[in-house]
Design goal:
The complex is a heterotrimer. By secondary structure, chain A is mainly alpha-helical. Chain A has 17 helices and 6 strands. In chain C, the strands form 2 sheets. A two-stranded antiparallel sheet of chain C has the order 1-4. Chain C has a two-stranded antiparallel sheet with strand order 2-3. The chains are: A mainly alpha, B alpha/beta, C mainly alpha.
Chain lengths: 454, 441, 314
């Protein structure tokens, strides 16, 4: 009876942990992002600390906003790769679909607020996710990776090759072809409420701060949502599929439906991020959604720690800031003129080259991380062991090491059953063991039988 | 509340005393065949397992024992009936078409299409209602009637399907809240901006919602159709009947839903999950929470999770208090014997009527083996679960089983009560012959 | 007769185009499929090894040996090209070997996603080193083959195309002979079947893997020379573009299957040639079609055209 009481109290704790974790993490990031602009503003105010003299506050906010957009993407991809273990190499396709959903309706005469699009674009992207996922998700591992990679290549090509098209409900719309779409800022969404009017964020230049807070509000919501999903039935099913598909299926998990859910959620979040991206950058062009974007997001979650939400957010924040700085800083650094002349003589387009080397650095980070710290910067507590490929020794309760390697238990059991057979044999009357020899297996059946049949 | 949980965790209908080959047949395997390439793994296998039995399959390595499990649980499909090249080709093409149409179009795109259609009608309805309310008139058109009926239909469908799936009053309330939430969202959006584009957005949201419902509730309707078509066009040899219903053709998760759970020869736990989570995964099919209720943590979801954890702890306690204490540790840190126990607990979590245990004592020492024998007996005696067992340790099988089938090269060479098997000449020959072959090599 | 029709003539010409492109893809695809067969890894860096071959060809022709005009004497021509090819093959094999050493060997025993990610990292590094070497624009590579063609009436073969096809046939024949006849080939097949069992039988796994990477690199090197001369470009993204298509070819044919890679390469080459020739704005859509075909094939035959359905071991 006492046992019962004890487990009950523990049980309550167990149960709420998920909620605490979700909302707690959300709160931490909320506070962090709330004060981040102020932090950078103070950095800029103190001129001795300022190492990036040409960056003003708005630029910093721009960098942080795009970091937020990448955090959204990383959170979504983490559901697909980190939780469900489905390697998706064409993730940028859904990002592109979201961005184009925004671009198409904000080009030319039509322009609508960002809010309804934040509802619609994820749905469109999610539907595409389902359409891609439904037929392909029964593929395993590497095949799935290559199919998604192919899809990720097709989508930008389609956008690049189409100038105009007709869509249901919208009529003939501009897609922009190679040049992409120059997009106008979203108009503010205003709610009349009594005598007051509430205006909500836009991404116009005079309203960078609002947009920043919009993006980070969404990041916080997405974080909470993902954590809550992870600690529920569907989250457990994802992890189970990642760990062992066959066992998951035998535990009653519908593989296709569960994978499809992960895929659709990942795609939706990516579409969501795409809308924000389009609204922020004022241009949507096919060149921005290639393989490199997919890989960048993948690097973010690998760097942070696959499957770990704090890790993924940290990784995305770090990398996207580094990424933008690499693009901005070389032109901003003021070198002594002698050094500058020397460098200019030796390498005439150094700034460009540093600019271009962004992915060289990415590649290096990826390689070093996966070799030296495969679990990421902040790994999820339970996954530290896995990626290193350590063998987990099976030990009986009495402490004996077992000779049973996982995957090849037959030999061990054979030995055991023969020891037992001695006993079994001695019970029955002696048989002429010479004539007990059986015909050996027909040729060509030995290995196939061992591997396939058992 | 806690009494209820206690009962749920420990259902102990005293099982009827199992007499060998008497009583109701639970699992009926008829003429099962499975070959890999040219190798016959199972040939013309017949088995009848009575409810409440402990039934063992023994035989030398490579006799096809695990393959029997794999076929029953839907991991492998048995051989098809040879019907000649033309018929087979025709069947293959027919199934390809049916799978494509029924599987992709109906299952996925069909839901989306239906969803957008319904969404459009409902949006029109509400738009009409609002404009009419503003204009002051009350002109109910045919479209409005259709819209009202559809809307009511969807609501009723949501509520009734919850009820059909075993929901209680709480389930009804959750359904109502979900439907209301969707409706409210829809209403807010449409009230804020009555533009064409917004209508598109609303359509799409609706499409997604209806799609979700479609996948959740229409899939179970499509699945049996697919299985029937498959069995008609490309028939399998043999039958596996569980309580008279065919298992062949079902995917592993549907086999589990019917009440057949299994463990694996080489333990297959989810190594990076905790002990408790592993057992919770086993309850997957018994939990009803949706993505929506998970993300909002509706009270129903929280209480359901609490029940699930309580049940999981109850199952772990069945194997000893030490597992309960270690429930938050990753399962990879457990000892070999404990992993086997957790695996059985995971299988039990799905409330099976038939439990397939693949070498439950492999790799255990003597004391652990004895304990395993005890708890397998208790499973049958206390919980009334029928057990189908593969075992190499003959002392275990002989002592515990009500009925034994001996397999060799995929064929059943003998069956009977343990005492008969002990004296069966073909069995002795199979085992001794096996030994001699190995000794030669 | 129908064959005399001018449109039919162009069909044959399109097939000739497809055959040549396909032969090059097949050579690259073999590298993917060999590595996948042995260690079940998508060697993402393979395309970039190939790209380095084209870069090397560019440097050799324009900077080092200054061979910028076509050579008319066939013996000198073939000798020169074979010489260039030997250099490229050795270099590419060494690059592939280095990649294996640095990026894959430390992760030999790790979970499956880890080597794939390190492969992507290695690919990025190689690609961007290429960017440093030749800059962001595509450079013009001279073609040593004379511009003429062998006219067979209904179809005409450019000289370089003939060379490519003959080269591919010889290399493929050589490779399949190597795999099926030699001791090392047998070792490779045994490792592909069951790594552990092979090592228990005394096969040196590391040696087999090294040989595999060397072979794949060498084939990519051979392909890179003719690729660069035929299209007359050296571009740092070639590795990604051509590599992706070659990999698609390997998957289409059934990855891990040597003949599948050849078949897949030809298939992809044909699709590309036909789409380019017959679809309006075909050049723009060729890539998209290739990937769409990949998705479709995998949906209906999840393990490729010649691939075997794997039996799940339980």
């Amino acid at each position: 009876m006492q046992m019962q009481v004890k487990s009950n109290s523990l049980r309550r704790f167990d149960l709420r942990r998920g909620i605490f974790r979700g909302w707690g993490l959300g709160a931490i990031f909320f506070l962090l992002f709330l004060f981040m602009p102020q932090f950078f503003a103070s950095l800029l105010a103190d001129s001795t600390v300022s190492i990036f003299p040409t960056l003003d506050g708005d630029q910093w906010l721009g960098i942080l906003t795009s970091a937020g957009i990448f955090i959204l993407m990383a959170l979504g991809l983490n559901v697909v790769v980190g939780f469900a273990g489905l390697l998706d190499l064409g993730y940028a396709a859904f990002f592109a679909i979201g961005a184009y959903a925004y671009g198409v309706v904000n080009f030319g005469d039509t322009h609508i607020p960002v809010w309804p699009l934040l509802l619609a674009a994820p749905v469109v992207a999610g539907l595409f996710g389902v359409m891609l996922g439904a037929p392909t998700l029964r593929l395993r591992g590497d095949y799935l990776a290559i199919v998604t990679l192919g899809f990720g290549e097709i989508v930008p090509i389609v956008f690049r090759n189409i100038d105009r098209t007709t869509l249901p409900f919208l009529g003939s719309v501009e897609i922009g072809g190679v040049n992409g779409l120059g997009v106008r800022s979203p108009t503010p969404l205003s709610f009349p409420f009594g005598n007051y009017t509430f205006e909500l964020a836009t991404a116009a230049h005079d309203d960078v701060t609002h947009f920043y807070y919009l993006v980070f509000g969404l990041v916080v919501l997405a974080t909470i949502g993902v954590v809550l999903l992870r600690t529920s039935k569907i989250g457990r099913a994802w992890i189970a599929i990642r760990e062992d598909e066959t066992a998951a299926a035998c535990s009653g998990i519908n593989l296709v439906a569960t994978k499809l859910t992960a895929f659709a959620i990942g795609a939706s979040v990516s579409g969501f991020a795409g809308v924000l991206y389009g609204a922020q950058n004022h241009i949507v062009s096919p060149e921005e959604f290639g393989f490199t974007v997919s890989i960048t997001v993948l690097v973010m979650i690998v760097l942070g720690g696959m499957g770990s939400i704090p890790g993924v957010i940290t990784g995305a924040l770090l990398l996207s800031i580094v990424n933008r700085l690499l693009a901005i800083v070389p032109t901003a650094i003021q070198l002594p003129s002698s050094a500058l002349h020397f460098l200019e003589a030796k390498a005439p387009n150094l700034a460009e080259q540093i600019n271009d080397s962004e992915f060289l650095i990415f590649g290096g980070i990826l390689l070093l991380m996966i070799i030296l710290r495969p679990q990421g910067l902040i790994p999820s507590a339970l996954r530290k062991r896995e990626l290193k490929g350590e063998a987990v020794a099976a030990v009986t309760e009495t402490g004996e090491e077992l000779v049973v390697p996982v995957g090849a238990p037959d030999d061990a059991t054979t030995i055991e059953s023969f020891q037992e057979l001695e006993a079994f044999e001695s019970e029955i009357e002696p048989e002429d063991s010479a004539s007990g020899t059986r015909a050996p297996l027909p040729p060509g059946q030995g290995r196939a039988g061992g591997g396939g049949a058992q | 509340m806690s009494i209820e949980i206690e009962q749920a965790a420990m259902p102990s209908p005293s099982a009827p005393e199992p007499g060998p080959q008497s009583g109701e047949v639970l699992l009926d395997v008829q003429n099962l065949n499975k070959s890999f390439g040219g190798l016959t793994a199972i040939g013309e296998l017949d088995m009848k397992i009575t409810r409440g039995q402990i039934y063992s399959i023994i035989g030398p390595n490579g006799a096809g024992k695990t393959t029997v499990f794999n076929v029953i649980t839907g991991i492998y499909r048995p051989n098809r009936i040879a019907v000649g090249f033309l018929k087979e080709a025709w069947g293959y093409i027919a199934m390809l078409v049916i799978n494509t149409v029924l599987g992709i179009v109906v299952r996925h795109l069909g839901g989306v299409f239906l969803g957008s259609l319904v969404g459009a009608l409902v949006a029109n309805l509400i738009y009409n209602l609002i404009t009419q309310a503003i204009a002051g008139g009350a002109d109910i058109t045919l479209a409005t009637i259709v819209g009202v009926l559809l809307f009511a239909g969807i609501g009723a469908y949501i509520l009734l399907s919850r009820r059909r799936l075993g929901g209680t009053l709480k389930g009804l309330i959750v359904g109502g809240v979900e439907a209301f939430g969707v409706g409210l969202l829809f209403f807010l959006v449409i009230a804020a901006h009555l533009s064409r584009v917004v209508t598109v957005a609303v359509f799409l949201v609706f499409a997604a919602v209806i799609y979700g419902l479609w996948v959740r509730y229409a899939n179970p309707l499509v699945e049996p159709l697919l299985i029937r078509a498959e069995n008609y066009f490309r028939p399998y040899q043999g039958k596996v009947l569980l309580g008279g219903r065919e298992l062949i053709g079902l995917s592993p998760d549907h086999v589990l839903r019917r009440g057949v759970a299994r463990t694996f020869q080489n333990i297959r736990l989810f190594n990076n999950m905790t002990v408790l989570e592993n057992v919770l995964v086993g309850q997957h099919t018994r939990l009803k929470s949706t993505i929506f209720s998970s993300i909002t943590r509706l009270p129903t979801m929280i209480s359901e999770e609490a029940m699930a954890e309580e049940k999981a702890i109850g199952l772990l306690r069945f194997f000893g208090e030490h597992l309960v204490e270690r429930r938050d540790e990753p399962v990879s840190s457990l000892s070999y014997a404990d992993k086997r126990r957790v695996e059985i607990a995971r299988a039990l979590a799905s409330e099976p009527v038939l439990l397939l245990l693949d070498e439950p004592t492999a790799g255990m020492n003597e004391r652990e083996t004895e304990e395993a024998v005890r708890y397998i007996r208790r499973l049958r005696d206390e919980r009334g679960i029928t057990v189908l067992l593969i075992e190499h340790k003959l002392t275990v099988t002989m002592g515990m089983s009500d009925w034994i089938a001996v397999l060799d090269y995929g064929r059943k060479i003998a069956e009977g009560v343990p005492a008969d098997i002990r004296r069966n000449e073909r069995v002795i020959e199979a085992y001794l012959g096996r030994k001699a072959t190995v000794a030669d090599a | 007769m129908i064959l005399a029709d001018s449109s039919t003539q162009s069909v044959l010409q399109v097939i000739e185009q497809g055959l040549t492109t396909g032969a090059i893809y097949a050579l690259i695809a073999t590298g993917y499929t060999l590595v996948y067969g042995i260690i079940q890894l998508i060697n993402f860096a393979h395309g970039d090894v190939f790209m380095w071959g084209t870069v090397l060809t560019y440097f050799m022709l324009t900077k080092w040996f200054k061979l910028t005009t076509p050579i008319s004497n066939p013996f000198v021509l073939i000798g020169t090209v074979l010489g260039l090819m030997a250099i490229c093959m050795i270099t590419c094999a060494l690059i592939a070997f280095t990649v294996e050493r640095i990026a894959y060997r430390p992760l030999r025993r790790a979970a499956s996603v880890a080597p794939l990610i390190s492969a992507i990292g290695a690919s990025f590094i190689l690609e961007n080193l290429g960017l440093f070497a030749i800059g962001p624009s595509s450079l013009n590579v001279p073609n040593l083959f004379p511009n003429g063609s062998l006219n067979l009436g209904v179809v005409s073969f450019k000289y370089i195309d003939i060379f490519v096809i003959v080269l591919a046939v010889i290399l493929m024949y050589g490779l399949s002979t190597f795999i099926s006849r030699t001791k090392m080939g047998r070792a490779m097949r045994s490792v592909a079947q069951d790594t552990e069992a092979a090592s228990l039988m005394g096969v040196n796994i590391n040696q087999v893997i090294i040989i595999t990477f060397l072979l794949g690199g060498a084939l990519a090197g051979a392909a890179s020379v003719v690729y660069a001369m035929r299209l007359q470009v050296a571009f740092f993204l070639t590795g990604f573009e051509a590599g992706l298509k070659a990999f698609t070819a390997a998957v289409l044919g059934g990855i891990g299957n040597l003949y599948g890679a050849m078949l897949g390469g030809l298939f992809i080459g044909m699709i590309e040639a036909f789409v380019t020739a017959y679809v309006h704005d075909g050049l723009k859509w060729a890539d998209a079609t290739v990937f769409a075909v990949l998705v479709l094939v995998l949906v209906f035959r999840p393990s490729g055209i010649l691939g075997k359905q794997a039996i799940v071991k339980v």
